[in-house]
Structure formats: C-alpha cells, structure tokens
Amino acid sequence: MVNDILQQLNIKPENSGVSTGTVWLEATGDYLQADSPVDGQVISKVKTASHKDYDTVIEKATAAFKEWRLWPAPRRGEVVRQAGEALRKNKEALGRLVSYEMGKSLQEGYGEVQEMIDICDFAVGLSRQLYGLTMHSERPGHRMYEQWHPLGITGIISAFNFPVAVWSWNSMLAMVCGNVCVWKPSEKTPLSAIACQLIIQDVLRANNVPEGVCNLVTGGRELGEWMAADTRIPLVSATGSTRMGKAVGAAVGTRLGRSLLELGGNNAIIISENADLDMSLIGCVFGAVGTAGQRCTSTRRLIIHESVYEAFTQKLVKAYQQLRIGNPLDENNHVGPLIDKAAVQLYQQAITEVKAEGGSFLVEGGVLEGDNYTSGCYVKPCIAAVENNFKIVQHETFAPILYVMKYKTLEEAIAMQNGVPQGLSSAIMTLNLREAELFLSQTGSDCGIANVNIGTSGAEIGGAFGGEKETGGGRESGSDAWRAYMRRQTNTINYSTHLPLAQGIKFDL
C-alpha cells in the first residue's frame, strides 16, 4: 500500500529536495534519509540543498518576484485556485503519505490536506480584497489613502507535526499578495513537502508562472540559519519550538527583517462546575491525544473545578482505557506513534520529572513493545495529577501527557491558565454565560485563541491563527493575517493649485 502511495505521488527511491517550482535542480548537498515512525522503515532518500543550491534558488526567486508582483492579484488567485483543485485530486494519496511519514492518524492526515484546500479557497477570494483605507486630509484639495504592496521573498520554515498545512497557510496567502516563497520543510518529513511541490508544479507550468515563484529547499538546521540571516528575504515565517523561534527572531531582528513566529503552546481547558461533562470529555481527550500530543494546540493541562474533579477524572480514565494505539493508517486506531525515538526519550524524561516533583499518575504511561510497535515510537497516553507551578508543567512536552489540577474560583482558574510562559490556545467548558464572557474578557485568557465549549486543538482557516508571549505573536491563515506578507504605503495626492503644508506651517519664498 505504501509503495502505491509513493508511485501515485511520483516519489522515487531517491529524490532531489531542491526545486524552483517548475524545475527540479540537481541538489548537491548531503543525503537525508526519510523513514517512518509507523514501522521504522526507510521510505526514501532525499538529496538536500548545499549553500550553492540555496543561493541559486534565492537568485531565481529574486528574479521571479520582479515579474510575479506585476500579475494582477486576481490572476495570481486563479493560479492558487487551480492549486487547490490539484490538491483535491490528490487528497487521499497525500493524506496517506502525511500519516505514514509523520505518524498522525489517517483522518488527521486527510484533515491536514483539507486545510490546504480550504486556505486555497480563502486565498482566491482574498485576491480581490487586498484593500487599504482612505483618510480625509486636513489640507484642501488633497486626498489621502493607503495601499499594500508585496514584500518580496517569503521564507517559510515549517515543523514536522503539520508537514504540509502550515506551508500552505503561508504560501497561498503570500503568493496572492504578490510575493514569492522559499520553503524549508522539517528534515523529519521531507517527502510530504516534495509531494506538494510535485502536485502543484503542473499548475505552475500550465499558467506560465515564472520559475522561482514557489521554491523548495530541504536540509537541516543550518539551512534555516541561512534563511534567517539572509537580507534578501524580508520576511521569515517560522513554525516550531520556542527555542527555535527565539534564534530565528534574533537573527532576523539583527538585520531589521520581519519574522512571523508560530511557536510553542501549553494549552489549558478550564472545566467549570457548570460544564456539560460528557461534551467536555470529547474535546479534552482529542485535544490531549490527537496527533499523539504533538500539536502546538494540543491540550496539555486540565484545570477542573474541585466539585466536579472526581467525576470528570473518572470519565477521563475510562475514556483513556478505550484508546486504541497502533498503525495510524488503520482507521480503527486513535493514536499513532511519536515522530522519532528522541521524542520518546523526552516523553520518558517528562514522566520521570513529574514523579520527582511529587505528581501522581491517574493513567500510567510507558513505551509500547511488541510486533505492532517495532519502530519503538509508540507510547501510552497518560494522565498526571500535578500542581500548575511544577517546573515540568510550565514547559511544553510534545507528547500525550495530560496534566490535571483543581481550582476553587474562576478567577483562580484563569490565573492558572495564564500562569505559563506560552499563550497559544485556551478554552473553558461552561454553560454559564457570565463565566464564558469573563473568560473572553480583557481580564480573562491571555492567549491568541480563546474558545468556549470547544477544545484547544484545531482551528478553522477563517480566523487568524497564532498566540502571545513565548508563542511568538505571529498570525497566520484567516482574517487580516495577509497583511503580514505586505508592506503598507500611505499616499497623499494634491489636486489643487496650491501647496499648503501640514499642521498649518507657513513657508513663503
């Protein structure tokens, strides 16, 4: 089955990981081995970008921008529309590849490709709405307005947990805005990126899109460092850990470039005494174990009112006992593997630290062994009773470890929710209108995403996605997130026969 997927997507035993959109270059870097956490098998090999290859791509992108920015935005939108149609045709195969290469469930793999399709649809409409404002001038016979222009090259650094969707969030918006893109995917999931490039290259060719508009460069950390330091790239959008984001932000800031950062999350759900506990259970369990806890929006903490703590944790334990862990391509399974053995070690280390700080486990964790878990990357989702101030709880562990704790008052719960360095996603489960409104007020959640009666995990593309504090402050996807990919220009036109100065200043000759 896996070979059929690779054949359908034109993935070969050895692949170049460098493309200028319509052309694949003969990469001259080292080989990168792409293997699967599902069964530990090597899927394929990818030749990565050397510094020479990288410079070639940047030069192509720089030249392409000069032409691409002159295309009318609706014409650029038509290219993106066709890209969405190509993704629709390949949704099943690409979704399966994402599931196999990354380890998320098959339904989540399909869902990720659907996100790509949805952002294409959004970007097509946006291509006719890149609007500015008009302002009244204080000077007679003058008109003021603002307009938005493309920046140039958008550098995109994406993470393994969403190997294709985050690229589309950035690239489709950036392209309709008139930018060109250079994508560095995670070195842990290069084949999904290559598949995307293969899918859209026919669209680019059919529309005579200039070579260099939509580029791919694969490689490791060094490649990301080149992008962050490159003055030819005015905007770097980076998704990943807070540690990585701080390094990228510092490098881009040193050269006074722009960075769009989507970093770590330490997301909490408050379970009110007024919550519908059965409905709440669904959001909490999926949020905690979906993608094996490897989403930036994964639910890490449950802050439960003391009056319903016992009842709700009993429901949680029962639900966890019903989880099926195994091959994510089997739709009967709920939880797949972690991305690699290094992630397994971090999971084990977190469990050790919970116990060392005095926490106890309602559901024990552990690494799974046996014929169905030969990759060594499968672990048990676990639940730990902790205090919010535990050192390990203050950090993001990219694994299915759910921390539960009690609260007495809603004000205390909100303080606990906000009392971590990260600020991405948050939620409250309550049927009390006053509680919901307080949670959403300026004294409530300090996160970029705040939900009522839905979980922390997952977001529709219509709203801007991103968070505060150590999450980086960036916004991607919907609403007016497109403005991050453009530069604002204020224009004043004098159509009178005089030249009055602003603020009433007189300057007579």
From TrEMBL:
Can the keyword Nucleotide-binding be found in this entry's annotation? Answer: no
What does the UniProt keyword field contain?
A: NAD, Oxidoreductase
User: Per the UniProt record, which EC number(s) apply here?
Assistant: 1.2.1.3
Q: Where is the active site?
A: 262
Q: Where is the Aldehyde dehydrogenase domain?
A: 24-490
Q: How does it assemble?
A: Homotetramer.
| Name of the protein described by the UniProt record | aldehyde dehydrogenase (NAD(+))
Organism, by scientific name, is: Chitinophaga oryziterrae
| Organism lineage string | Bacteria, Pseudomonadati, Bacteroidota, Chitinophagia, Chitinophagales
